[in-house]
From TrEMBL:
It comes from candidate division WS6 bacterium GW2011_GWF2_39_15. This is ASCH domain-containing protein.
Length: 146
């Protein structure tokens, strides 16, 4: 399986993946949603900032999933992983708001990040708000940059 992670451009995290300041990707959900139980070590994640082409990829080295989280557990996780996830130990108000009320967390450990030739994706069938796509072959949704 191959995956596409769509990142919030304003957070500037794709560049931190390339520079290896960010060595994990976290996903927080109120309900179990993809990629819950869809990720395996050795699979590839392609990354793109919202509204931009895919520009890099990394390999999954390890996946951790946490469920039925309460506020204290969320805070413990974000503090434990913030430096590896955000490239900083400070947690902004925007991040605090983002994880508030989330009951599920996926911690995806990354290795071997690489810049790639940019390409667009066709999200038809995935929904315009989808921030994670899982496909058997990236070529099926890959489109050239115009």
């Amino acid at each position: 399986m191959q995956h596409i992670a769509i990142m919030r451009k304003s957070w500037g995290l794709t560049q931190k993946i390339l520079s290896r300041e960010k060595i994990i990707e976290t996903r927080w959900y109120k309900n179990k949603a993809r990629p819950w139980n869809f990720l395996k070590a050795g699979e590839t994640i392609f990354f793109k900032d919202s509204g931009k082409p895919v520009t890099l990829k990394a390999t999954i080295s390890k996946v951790e999933q946490f469920e039925d989280l309460n506020e204290k557990q969320r805070q413990t996780l974000i503090k434990r992983f913030s430096a590896k996830d955000l490239g900083t130990t400070g947690i902004s108000q925007e991040i605090e708001e983002h994880i508030k009320g989330k009951r599920y967390a996926i911690i995806i450990h990354l290795k071997d990040p690489k810049a790639i030739r940019p390409f667009q994706i066709d999200k038809t069938g995935y929904g315009t708000q989808a921030s994670w796509l899982s496909v058997k072959d990236i070529k099926k949704i890959k489109r050239p940059v115009n």
